Amino acid sequence: MAEISQRKRIWGWYFFDWASQPYNTLILTFIFGPYFAQVASQNLVGRGLEKDAADALAQAYWGYGLTATGIMIAILAPVLGSVSDNSGRKMPWIWLFSVMYFVGAMGLWLAAPDNFSVVTTLIFFGIGLIGMEFTTIFTNSYLPTLGDKDDLGRISGSGWAFGYVGGVVSLLVMLGLFQATDTGNTMLGLKPLFGLDLATKADTRIVGPMTAIWFAVFMIPFFMYMRDEPVVGKAAYSIKDSLAELFTTIKSLPSRPSLFAYLGSSMFYRDALNGLYTFGGIYALGVLDWSITQVGVFGILGAVSGAVFCWVAGYIDKFMGPKPVIVGSVLVLMAAAMLIISLTPTSVLWLDVGEGSPLPNIAFYVAGAMIGAGGGVVQSASRNMLTRQAKPERITEAFGLYALSGKATSFMAPFLIAVTSQITGSQRLGVTPLVVLFIIGLILLLWVKPDGEHE
User: Fold this and answer.
1) Cα–Cα distance, 43 to 113 (Å, whole number)
2) Interval 141-146 mean pLDDT
C-alpha cells in the first residue's frame, strides 16, 4: 500500500470537522433545536397552556433531553478512550459512531407536527449526538500525530475554521434550497426541493436527512487518508484492563495539578458554551419572535465569524500558546451571554429602546458573531491545550477524560437553564446561570500551566 503523505492526512483530518459540523450548526443550534421548541410549544398551547409558559416548558424539554444524553456520554467516553489506547485501534470506533450519527440524524425526519413525540424525537437526537461526540473524541486523538508541538495550534485552528466553513455552506444549502420563508419560497426565491410539503414542516424536517447524507459523503476523505498507526505489543480490546488503566489515571490526577485544573476549568466553560449554542436559537425564537429563517441567518453570521477567528487564532496559538487564547475567548463569550440576557423586544443592555426598534435584533446578531468567534476559538485552542497536558501514549484516554469533564456536568447548563426557565417562566432569565459557569472556568485556569507537568 502506498504511503499516505502528511499533507493528505491533515486534510483528511480536516474533513471530519467539515463533515460533522452540521450536527452542531443545523440540528443542535440553528434549525432543528428551534423547530423542536416551536412544535413542542404549539402542542402545549393546544393543550391549554399559556404561550410564555409553553415556550419555557418546551425549552426545558430540550434541556432535559440534552441532560440525559450528556450523562451517557460522560460515563462511556473515558472507558472507550482507554480501550482504544490499550488496543492501539481507533478506526473501528469511528466507524461505529459514524453509523450512529447517520441513523440519529436521519431519524429526525419523523418529527412531523401532527404526529410529534417529544420522547421519540429526543431519542433519535440523542443517538446522533452520541455518535457525533464519540467520533470527535477518537478523531481529536489523532491531532498529536499531524505535526510538531508548536504547529498543532495552527493545525487545530485551521481544522476548526474549515469545519465552520462547512457549517456555513450547509446552512446556505438548507436556507437556499429547502427551508421556506413566510412567502412559501426559500431565501433564493425557489420552491423547496423535492416538493416538500410546508404543511407538515417537511421543509424544516429535511434538515435531519440532509445532515446525515452530508456527513456520509464528506467523511470519505477522512476514511481514505487516516489510518491507525501500527503499535507493537498492544493487546486486543479488554474492558477489564482498560478500566484498570483508567482508574489508575483518575487516581493520579491530584498528583498532576495542571491537568486536573484544566479538566475542571474546561468542564465549566465548555458547559456554558454548549448552553449558548443549544439555547441561542430557541431563545431568539421565543423571546424575539424570530422565524426559523432568521435563526438560520444568525447561524450563518456566527459560523462565518467562527471560521475567520479560528483561522487567525490558530496562528496566535502557534506563537503564544493556547492558554491566552482560551482566556480571551471565554471573556468574549461571557460578554455575549450578558448581552443576550439584557435583550427583550424593547430593550438592549437593559435600556428601553421602544416598541418596533431594530436594535434588539441587531444586538442579537452581534451576540451571534461573538458566540461564533469565541466558541470556535476556545474549542480549537482547548483541544490543542490537552495535547500539552496529556501523556502522549494515553492521548485517546485523555480525550475521553476531556469528554468526561465536558459531559460530567454537561447536564448542568441545560438543567440550570431548564429549571430557571421553568421556575421564572422566562426564557431570558433562564440563560443567567451561564455567566457563573464561565467565571468558574476562568478561575480554575489560574492553576493551569501552559505546558502542563512537562514544564
Assistant:
1) 8
2) 84
Q: Is the C-alpha dihedral spanning 345, 175, 40, 270 positive or negative?
A: negative
**Cα–Cα distance between 345 and 108 in angstroms, integer?**
31
Distance set, CA 427 to CA 39, 201, 253, 340 (Å): 16, 24, 38, 11
- Distance, in Å, from the CA atom of 435 to the CA atom of 438, rounded to the nearest integer, reads 5
Q: Are 177 and 192 in contact (CB under 8 A)?
A: yes
**Residue 393's CB: how many other CB atoms inside 10 A?**
10
Please give the angle made by the CA atoms of 311, 312 and 314, to the nearest 5 degrees. Answer: 65
Lowest mean pLDDT, pick from 71-75, 131-135, 153-157, 191-195:
71-75
Secondary-structure breakdown of the chain: helix, strand, coil percentages, each rounded to the nearest 5? 80, 0, 20
Helix (H) / strand (E) element for 9: namely: helix 6-22
Residues in the chain: 455
* Cα 296 from Cα 27, distance rounded (Å): 11
Residue 324, CA atoms < 13 Å, CB-side half-sphere? 9
Highest mean pLDDT among 37-51, 94-108, 371-385: 94-108
**Above 60 in pLDDT, residue 253?**
yes
pLDDT (mean) for 213-227: 95
Confidence of residue 11 (pLDDT cuts 50, 70, 90): very high
Q: With cut-offs at 50, 70 and 90, classify the pLDDT of residue 33.
A: confident
Element (H, E) at 280: helix 257-287
Q: Pick the closest to residue 245 from 76, 85, 135, 74 (CA basis).
A: 85
Residue 423's contacts (CB-CB under 8 Å, 6 or more residues apart) are none
Identity at 346, one-letter amino acid code: T
Given a cut of 50, whether residue 1 has pLDDT beyond it is no
Give the CA distances from residue 449 to residues 155, 261, 320, in Å, rounded to whole numbers and listed in that order. 21, 9, 13
DSSP per residue, 282-349: HHHHHHS---HHHHHHHHHHHHHHHHHHHHHHHHHHHHH-HHHHHHHHHHHHHHHHHHHHT-BTTEET
pLDDT in tens, 158-187: 888 898 889 889 988 998 999 888 888 998
pTM strictly above 0.90: no
Residue 355 cell numbers, joined: 416598541
CB burial of residue 212 (10 Å; 0-12, 13-18, 19+): buried
What DSSP state is assigned to residue 149?
G
Find out whether 287 and 58 touch, Cβ atoms under 8 Å.
no
Compute CA distances 33 → 61, 121, 361, whole Å. Answer: 11, 11, 19
3-class DSSP state of 443: helix
